[in-house]
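Q: What would this chain look like folded?
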Amino acid sequence: MTKRILILQRVVGVLYIVAGIGKFFPEIESVEQRLDDAAEANDGVAVLGGFTNWLDGHPTGVTVFVAAAMVVSGLVLLRDRELVLAALYGQLLMLVCFVLILVGSVPQILVLDAAFFAAGIYLIVVHRRAAAGSSSVPLDAGTDTTT
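A: My prediction, written as structure tokens:
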């Protein structure tokens, strides 16, 4: 794995950590307001409407869950150890859920999450290729000397 890819991975990790911490500061992003808006936008939508209403009824739990998932997955990307692929797949699933729930009330989510989705897909491809090419040698960020 090249240094550029490792830098990208770590930048994405830091951005997830910052975004996760930001969930606790309504001045940055009010999760409660986002959920209210999403519940209103998804009102009457089959399955999604009821689920969004349920989320809207539990803003503190949603905030803690989402923030913890973002911070932990970001830390995994920074450490560059065994769980990187699992964290990346989890991030992709989380992004898809965010878009499904929020696109009706916050259409601009598509642009930002598309960038994170593309970075995640790219990193998954790189890690899978590296694992396939060196099945007996684990990836170690500390020994990367290629450019």
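The CA atoms of residues 9 and 123 lie 7 Å apart.
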